[in-house]
């Protein structure tokens, strides 16, 4: 049985004070969460604060991005080993905002996935099609290409300690959620793609859904057999809403 995972992606939101308030709100409600594992990915500068606030709690934390190199002259970048210094467990790689707004292509995303693993972090690899690609019936081609870039560089064994997040771009921050059936279909495809190379790894792989998950639609989505939790953007900025979503992941 795969343990559900619910991860908050705070993106570039909040202040130092608001971050503290949000963490405290989540901590207060942790008893209401059942079986799911929880983690938050705050803006990078707040990671050290979050590490202190969450130390000794069952809530994990991570970063939203990392450099594909471990050390060197890469102005403005942060490496995997630096994230490990602050006890990050997870790191998001290839989020669609990084791909679309910062020009991260499949090859760079694959190298970031590799960098995360080298450092001992668990990468959360985001994949997903944009609206035009869905309308052209190319969803599976796009997701396959995004997965293959990582499979080719790192091999299927790398997925034994990784998470995949299916995030249809048209559903991110738009209030338009994929239907549970639409999401399940792509999750099945992803598991099948990994399973074609290693059935055991595919069976154990957690595949999260992301894209306008809310307290009101989480249960239906998480009910699908291949949806193992969620990557939550906007709704993770509210402690109560985030906890409601987490409690729906049974
Ligand atoms: P959203 O974002 O929940 O605000 O749609 C999800 C994500 O980008 O990870």
What would you note in describing this structure?
By secondary structure, the chain is of the alpha/beta class. The protein has helices at residues 16-28, 47-54, 80-85, 96-101, 106-119, 131-135, 139-154, 180-195, 199-204, 218-222, 239-248, and strands spanning 5-9, 37-41, 60-63, 90-93, 122-127, 163-166, 206-210, 229-232. It has an eight-stranded parallel barrel, surrounded by five helices. α1 crosses α11 (239-248). The longest helix has 16 residues, at 139-154. The site of 2-phosphoglycolic acid has 13 residues, from β8.
SSE arrangement:
Blueprint: E1 5-9, H1 16-28, E2 37-41, H2 47-54, E3 60-63, H3 80-85, E4 90-93, H4 96-101, H5 106-119, E5 122-127, H6 131-135, H7 139-154, E6 163-166, H8 180-195, H9 199-204, E7 206-210, H10 218-222, E8 229-232, H11 239-248
Bound molecules: 2-phosphoglycolic acid (PGA).
